[in-house]
Amino acid sequence: DTEWTDILRKHGILPQQVKITQNDIYDSAVEKAQEEESRRLENLDLDELDELEDEEDDRILEFYRQQRLAEMQAHLDKEKFGELMHISEPDYKREVTGASKDTWIVVHLFRDSIPECKLMNRILSELAQQYRATKFVKIVSVECIHNYPDANLPTLLVYGKGDMQGQLVRLDRFGGMRTKRKDIEKYLLDMGAIDSSLRRPLPNENASDEESDDDSARPVYFDLSKSLRK
Question: CB count, 10 Å around CB of 137?
Fold first, then answer.
């Protein structure tokens, strides 16, 4: 039967078959829905139209409210840290190497006897409160790398994507004990270890923290990756 109808169409006896696509069906359904909505609105008086407008406004407001709540929840899910954690050698693989697959981690190698290390710990404690999506940890230097020289302290190791992404040795580039929180903040921002959109202000934050950075010096790097692979 199909073959015979094809012959009739070929000779113009029957009209050509019209192919209907999914887009045609969708467009037709949308057009029909629009026509029905138009007819419904035509039959409404002014009071009914005002009421409908209020309902639409409420619907739009509710949509944006739910969207905002979802965004806030997503931020809260990321901001799960908030303090400078003290870890020891047995914790390193779990808290740093393994965890860095899912989050950025800043590791401070320190000794309590070194003033610059105390300064760095204070700075990192404040940054940890501001950037709660990043994990900040500190570990005594010789527990992390046996026989690590005090002359290289403080040392920052920045982990992300499951591996070390950068290292900062000493505070010479920032002026030693004149180093400010904004200096380390900019360094970590440039590394991608902290997200400026998630920054929380500190209660004691002041104008001195907003001074411009001096980028004339370059950081000193050492290849520590081999010593840290455990």
Answer: 23
Could you please report the per-residue DSSP string of the chain? Answer: -HHHHHHHHHTTSSPPPPP--HHHHHHHHHHHHHHHHHHHHHT--HHHHHHHHHHHHHHHHHHHHHHHHHHHHHHHHH----SEEE--GGGHIIIIIIGGGTS-EEEEEE-TT-HHHHHHHHHHHHHHHH-TTSEEEEEEHHHHSTT--GGG-SEEEEEETTEEEEEEESSGGGTGGG--HHHHHHHHHHHTSS-GGG----TT--GGGGPPP--SS-------HHHH--
- The one-letter amino acid code at 210 reads E
As a whole number of angstroms, the longest Cα–Cα distance in the chain is 101
Q: How far, in Å, CA of 106 to CA of 117, rounded?
A: 14
User: Is the Cβ–Cβ distance between 198 and 81 less than 8 Å?
Assistant: no
Give the tens place of pLDDT for each residue, 194-226. 999 889 888 776 644 544 444 433 444 444 544
| Cβ contacts of 138 within 8 Å, gap of 6 or more | 84, 85, 86, 87, 107, 108, 109, 110, 121, 124
Beta bridge partners of 163: 160
> Whole-model pTM?
0.61
> Which among 148, 140, 152 is positioned nearest to 107, based on CA atoms?
140
